[in-house]
Amino acid sequence: MFLSRTQRFTTGFLAGLLAGIVATLLMIILSVTVNGVSLPEVFGSALTGLLSPSLFTYLHNLIGGDAKHYLFYIIVVGQCLVFALSGGLCNLLVGEIQRRQTDTSATDVHWTTGVLLALILWVIVGVAFLPLTGAGLFGSALGIGLLSTMLSLAVVGATFGVLFVFTQNWLMERRVETQSTRGKRKSTTTARRDLLINSIQVIGVGVLGVLAWRFITSSGSSSAGTAASSSVSKLVQQFKKKIVPPPMPNYSSDFKLVPQLSSEITPNDQYYVVSKNLFSDPTVDGKSWRLSVTGQVQKSLVLTYDALLAMPTVKQYESMMCISNDVGGQYMSNALWEGVPLADLLTRAGGVVNTATKVVIYAADDYSDSIHLSKALEPTTLLAIRMNGQTLPQGHGFPVRLLVPGIYGMKHVKWITRIDVVNSDYQGYWQQRGWSDEAPIRLTARIDTPLTGTTLKAHTQTSIAGVAFSGNKGISEVDVSLDEGQTWQRAILKRPFSDLTWVLWELAWQPTTAGTYNVLARAIDLEGNVQDPNLAPPAPDGSSGYHTISLTVQ
Ligand SMILES: Nc1nc2c(c(=O)[nH]1)N[C@H]1C(S)=C(S)[C@@H](COP(=O)(O)O)O[C@H]1N2
Ligand SMILES: [Mo]
Fold first, then answer.
1. In this structure, which of 80, 164, 342, 371 has its CB flanked by the most CB atoms within 10 Å?
2. pLDDT, tens digit, for every residue of 344-361?
3. Around 199, how many Cα atoms within 13 Å sit in the side-chain half-sphere?
């Protein structure tokens, strides 16, 4: 029996695809269960490293919070296609060899071919792909390490190789069986294949068209934004950066907790969750976990979880906000934390040597970030082990995460494994992708209620309320404007548990005139700094501008 090259390739491609899907699923399962390597995670991380922060935010805004999951699925599909391609090429090569040997009757691929193919893929991934993505030779730079990467890759590779040969031979047999009954059948299969190719092309063009349309409309939608931007320029003109002396906070004892207003303490299961991990966050085993303190310290340390728990702890109310939070966004929460001051741990390591400048924190998911030594030594910089009275939840960094008030969530490293004191200007995971290294939180006020678009009744009292957050500078005043920032009314505040948390604010309002209103809110911190009215997107320094909602009064 004779098979054309195309036939050989497509059969191999199909077999490679099926085997590749199974192997990819196995790879994901191994990564979640036994810390095997997840090539889609590694590749995704390298890919986002190539995007500029503004393109990153643009795509994030276009696609939304699910962006990272979509990215993961796209890469997974890509990986399956690479497997398929390798299957197709392998089958072409085998066919070529068989032809040289003039053994045209042979169609079976020997299982050793599968093993050889797996070996080749294993070497390519370990020696070329992983080093190119920055993960090192066979993943030596990854947290899971060389051995785990080599082994899990070998298991996935071998599964692929064997399954490929099996599927390939099965498909070939079917081809041989249907060889005799070709004729008319063939034309229908070609027609069907043409239809498939055509529809793929149509879908592809359609998707590109939609993306292009959204690109055009989103950049053109500034026509609706011109009214807003002219009022912003007015705001900016009147804007006083700082008020001296700072206002006295007007805490009120009859502060009402209206529905829709954020609860002052966010329950653990409602606390926002952000991580770079596309598919799954690390599950750390507390028993085998070790925390090492290395670098510019007098004596390096290795601590078990129990040893860390045995250290004296402090409790601290602190809110966190993600640097990618839009003004008015939801990536902001508040909790009561308990942890060991980082300074205490450094003291236990004999103190830092006097050339030290920065502290780098490494995590189990190959994430890292750094803070300045002065920040590291502040008494509020903690290694948190409890959150709202409970053991730190897995999603929030079990067994231990960093708390570093005043700077964005990004630097609150979760799943910590190593603390390295250095004398160089280390740049962390997001800094390598263009985000701010200093990353001070930008003062912000969010309107929780009413929701934008709400219709209210005239002459009925309603409550405009929300939260304001400065990082570690407290809140002295929150103002609301109903006339595009020409006049401001002062809201009442709920006395906060600490100056490191957000502050609940509220303003009673009884509209008298029907119409539509833009409601703006702005905050002032305890030092008198006034929230910046200039609009800025999250990348690279965090968003700014005033949260604005629109209401209709009837
Ligand atoms: N190890 C690790 N720590 C991390 C991250 C991460 O991806 N990996 N993401 C950071 C970011 S961007 C934010 S905003 C906070 C979010 O913490 P949370 O999920 O507990 O709210 O964790 C930070 N710490
Ligand atoms: Mo973040």
1. 164
2. 999 999 999 999 999 999
3. 5
- Cα→Cα distances 185→174, 298, 447, 468, Å: 14, 79, 66, 70
Q: Which atom of ligand 1 is nearest to the CA of 396?
A: 20
Residue-wise pLDDT tens digits, 140-196:
999 898 999 999 999 999 999 999 999 998 888 887 777 656 544 445 555 555 555
Query: Measured from the CB, is residue 232 less than 6 Å from ligand 1?
Result: no
Ligand 1 contacts CB of residue 433 (under 6 A): no
Residue closest to 16 by CA, chosen among 73, 86, 112 = 86
Q: Closest residue (by CA) to atom 9 of ligand 1? A: 275
Query: pLDDT per residue over 249-276, tens digit each?
Result: 999 998 999 999 999 999 999 999 999 9
Pocket test of ligand 1: the residue of 414, 435, 436, 469 to mutate, having most ligand atoms within 8 Å of its CB, is 414
Question: Cα–Cα–Cα angle for 441, 338, 413, nearest 5°?
Answer: 45
Q: Measured between alpha carbons, how far is 320 from 410 in angstroms, rounded to an integer?
A: 9
Q: Which ligand lies nearest the alpha carbon of 274?
A: 1
Q: Kindly give the distance from the C-alpha atom of residue 452 to the centroid of ligand 1, in angstroms, as a whole number.
A: 29
For 352-499, list the strands marked E by DSSP.
Answer: 358-363, 368-372, 382-387, 390-391, 401-403, 416-422, 444-449, 455-456, 462-469, 477-481, 489-490, 492-493
First-to-final CA distance of the chain? 82
**What does residue 87 show for φ and ψ, rounded to 5 degrees?**
-65, -45
Q: Which residue has the tokens 């502040």?
A: 378
User: Binning pLDDT at 50, 70 and 90, where does residue 322 land?
Assistant: very high
Instruction: Please tell me the predicted confidence (pLDDT) of residue 223.
Output: 37
Q: Is 34 helix (H, G, I), strand (E, B) or coil?
A: helix
Q: Which residues surround ligand 2, an ion (CB under 5 A)?
A: 274, 322, 409-410
**Entry pTM:** 0.84
